[in-house]
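Sample A.
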Amino acid sequence: MKRVFAAVALAGLLTGSLTACVSSGRTDQSRATGDKVACPVAVDESFTGTVRLGYQEIPNGDLVVKDAGVLETCLPKAKITWSKFASGATVIQAFGSNSLDLGLLGSAAAARALSAPLNIGMKAVWVHDVIGAAESLAVKDPAITTVAGLRGKRIAVPFASTSHYSLLAALTAAGIERDVQLINMQPDAIAAAWRGGDIDAAFIWEPTLSELLKNGHVVTTAAQTAKAGKPTYDLEGARAEFVSANPRFLEVWTAAQNWAVTQINTAPDAAATRISAQLGVPVADIRKQLGEYGYLDAATQAGPAYLGKQLGADLKSSADFLLSQGEIQGVASPEAYAAAVYADAANKVSAR
């Protein structure tokens, strides 16, 4: 199962189309609240370039920034486009085809991108969130109460995602990694397959997770696999060439994200309202989901526990695990993963 699984995953990354990417933005986002906020740093009219941003429908600061139009306010002469992606795998494809400058992807997808055979020139520039119970293994049969009880069952998960990484870790810990059928599905497809009875379980994130839990239950979470030594994050990745050429943009972008994190942590109702507008999910549901992640300000991220040092080690650890599961062909040196973490912008913002 493992060898076939790896081949399918790699083939999907290398040859899949970009149909999961959908153009979006404030100008055509009818659910946006419309009100904008002041730029948290000095407005920069000198930047006139085009920046292609990729987001996912995950409740974090990226959607707050998007809804508030902060980047457009801070960089009034820039051309900024937002495109929606279904998972980290499609973000990796876009980096590989040079059709995206920055995009949200999970730490497992980032580790995969930086490892053989992909070896994509990418930098991790921000930790959008530390994943907790927001990514969980949902099971439909009420008689199954442990991961081990899923032996012989069909489990859906988006391949090359943080949920995929957490699921593999949970299955390995339970000793059943060779005794289940893993099915590569994007979130919308998982919801449909669950309703149709085509899968027995799924490891997935919000808001799809809440949909499954209407008639299912959780047997383990990303918070639990993190405690077992397999933490996961949602990161912002950027093409290395773009980072080198645009340090000022990265500083402004980071200041906007730092503002959004402050909103989530100090004014969660206002932040949830903005995220709700982007996702079309009730504000009360977003408030609950915000409690299932951890959100870090720039000063925390610039420290040794994250961008300052540990994230590079965590990416290397993720790559080691993916290699052990036949998910990648080779692991780079520890120095390569450390060099793939860009802390300069977080350091500058935190020093303000």
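Sample B, a different protein:
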Amino acid sequence: MSREVKTLYVAEAEDGIRLDRWFRRRWPHLSHVQVQKMARSGQIRVDGSRVKPEDRLTAGAAVRVPPIPEPVEKTPGERQTLSDRDVAYARSLVLFEDDMVIALNKPAGLAVQGGTKTTKHVDRLLSAWGEGLERPRLVHRLDRDTSGVLLLGKGPEAAKRLAGAFARRQAKKTYWAIVMGAPKPGAGQIDLALKKSGINDFEIMRPADPKEHGAEPAETAFATISRAAHRASWMALRPFTGRTHQLRAHMKAMGHPILGDPKYGDEASTELSGPLKLQLHARRIELDHPGGGKLIVEAPLSPEMKAGFAHFGFSEDEAEQDPFAGVKRIR
């Protein structure tokens, strides 16, 4: 057992994760009972305070990590390995790869991280690149039904630098979405705190007073790229914070829910959506490469977004180089 006490910080990709799951994703050999014991004895603390195993963590929180017992080595036959088919599938998602970064084109319907009922997810597929220090690390996340660019860090140092860029809001993320109606003004910024409500599959983010307990600040820039009369609009969205379901909750709060959204839609948007799936796509990420220079990655439209574009008559060549030029803050 290492006697070292460490302080680790919760990444943006882990916002909202339970404390016990946060520990077991880093140290899979730990039993649930071990994590409970360390938490209830005060060995684990978050931002200096005692916590329960089921408490949820927020991005940027400082976690005191006590000495962790060493894992008991398993025999090769006991180790879980990916099938050749899974490895091939994982590598087929690669948009860009070098010795420090991997950018995946995450399809809609594939969760980024696992849960009680989720066995196929990106985090599991990362074993296609190896284990231990060879295993890439998630530095942010996308909703299960959101498609597009997902960045991974190769090795601890690259992951730390990438995660730091997200935490310091240095990563420019551009999402494309098709929403109901025509937002007015057509471009601006919404600053609206959000708070989690409900549990498990019924958990949603709702607008909240910034002073309300559990409310978290959330900021999103939006710009209209094209309109299908007054029925629907193709929007560019840029989150400056990384709250769960932020874009979906903000567009609903504006009265223009994203089409194909079963959780944040309403009766009118559901009718307009018809058979369309969630019309939200992580189109582009731009940030400093951990090895120097700029990293810019774009993801082609997903089949789900192509269906939306075809239905409303949108064409990719309508998008400007910078849809956010001149966007003003909305209060």
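Observation for Sample B: Residues 260 and 278 are 4 Å apart (CA to CA).
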